[in-house]
Amino acid sequence: MRILLISPNTEMLPDPVFPLGLAFLSGALKHSSHQHEILDLCFTEDYGEALDRSVAEFAPEIIGLSLRNVDNVAYPNTHSYVPFYRKVVAHLRQITSVPIVLGGSGFSLMPWLMLENLQADYGIVGEAEVTLVHFLDQMERGQVPDQLAGVISASSNRVSQLIAPKGFPSQDFLVPWRDKLANEEYLRFGGMGNVQTKRGCGFSCIYCTYPLIEGREVRLRPPKQVGEEIQQLSDQGVDTFFIVDNVFNFPPHHAKSICREIVQRNLEVSWSCYLHPQFVTESLLLLMKEAGCTGVEFGTDAGSDRLLKLLGKSFHTEEVRRASELCHKVGLSFCHSLVFGGPGESRETIRDTVALMGEVSPTAVIAMVGIRLFPGTRLAEFASSEDLIITDETMLKPTFYLTESVRPVVLDLLYEHAEENNNWILPGSNVNIDRRLQEKLRRFGLKGPLWEHMQIRRK
C-alpha cells in the first residue's frame, strides 16, 4: 500500500524539533513491502497547498498523522495544537476519501479523545514501528485492522488492547531513516538534530508521561547501533544533536558505552542531553565531554526536599548541589529545569528553590509555572481528588495544576527575579526567550540548545 505520513507539528519555540518518530516509522516501512512518502508541515507557508500537492502527486491509499504534542505545555501563554490538527484532517477530507490514521506521543496520551475530536478513522497507541506495518498488511488484504493490539477505530467502542512493549523490535525496524525529511532545515532553523539511545522510564515523577508512552521498562539500544546512526548523521553534515532520552545517564554503563562509541569513531560532533542528578559522576562527565557533550539539562523541578518527595523525585537537594559542582569542576555548561506551583508549593518553597539556584549558579534556569495535567498520571488523579478536574475531556485543552496558595503571586515573584537574573528563562511568559531572539541567535550560526548561549545573549 501507499501511505503518506504527515508531521503537522509547526511549533518553532524554543526550536523546531526534528520528527524523530516519523524517521523511525520511515525506517520500518523501508524494510516492508509498502511505499511511503513524508510531508513535514513545519517549514511550509501554506499547509493546504502542501497537502493538495502531496496527495495529488503520491495518490496515497492511506494517510497517517504523527501528533508529537497536544499543546506547548506552557502557562500562562498556552497554545493548543489540536485546532490546527483538526484543520489538517478536515482539509484532507475535502481532497481524498482514503482512511486517516493517527499516532505519535501526543495522540497516545489521549487516544480516544483525539480520535473523536479530529474525526479520524483509526489510531495506533504507543510504539508503531511494528504495528503500522501489520496494520497496512491487513488493510491491503481487505481486513479490518482494529483487532491489532494498540489499534483503535472510530467505528468500534472496543478498548485498545495496548500491550506494554518488552524489548525493542528487530534492528531493521528500529533504525531511523531520515532521507525523506528536511535534515538541513532543522539544523539551520533548530540548531540540531536528535538521537534516541533508549526507551522507557522506571522513575516515578507524578506528572510524567514517559512511562505512559514508552512503558516503565528501560529498553536499551545497542551502543554500536547508536554509534552507526551518529556516524551517518555526521556524514550528512548534522554535527550537532540532542539525545532525547528521558535521562541519558541511566543506566550509567549504557551512557558510557555510547560515549566510547563516539570517541572510538573519532566523530567531531557536539551534543547535549538530559541528566539525572543521582547518577552524575566526574568520570562520566569527563567521558561525555571527550565525546563532544557541550551541555546538560537537569529535571530538578524544586529546591526543597519536601517538595521533591511530593513530586515523586528520587533525589535530594544535596545531589543537585553535588551534580552542579561536578559540572563546574569539569567545565560543562548546565541548566536546571524547574516547575513552580505543584502540590505543597508555598512562598517558602519558592524561596528555597530560588536560593538553591543562586547557590549552584547554573548556566541557565528554565522555570515553568504550573504543571500540565495529562490523563493517567498520578498528578491527574491527585487533582481529581481535589475536584479540580471533572473528566478526562477537560484535559484535551491545556489544563494546569497550580496550587491556590501561590497562584496569585508566583508569576510576579518569578518575573521580578528574572529581571535581576537574566540567566532565568520563563517559557510560558516569553521572558528571556521569544521567536525574534531565537531567529537572531540562529542567524549567528549558533547550534545546540539556546540556553547554552545565555552568556552571548546577555552581551
Question: In summary, what is this structure?
Answer:
Helix content is 39%, strand content 16%. The protein has 459 residues and is α/β, with parallel strands linked by helices.
Question: Could you walk me through the main structural features you see in this protein, from its secondary elements to its overall organization?
Answer:
The chain is α/β, with parallel strands linked by helices. About 40% of the residues lie in helices and about 15% in strands. The strands form four sheets. The protein has a seven-stranded parallel beta sheet with strand order 7-10-11-12-13-14-17. Strands 2-1-3-4-5-6 form a six-stranded mixed beta sheet, with helices on both faces. It has a two-stranded antiparallel sheet with strand order 8-9. β1 (about 1-5), α1 and β2 form a beta-alpha-beta unit. The longest helix has 14 residues, at about 80-95. The model has no long low-confidence stretch (mean pLDDT about 90).
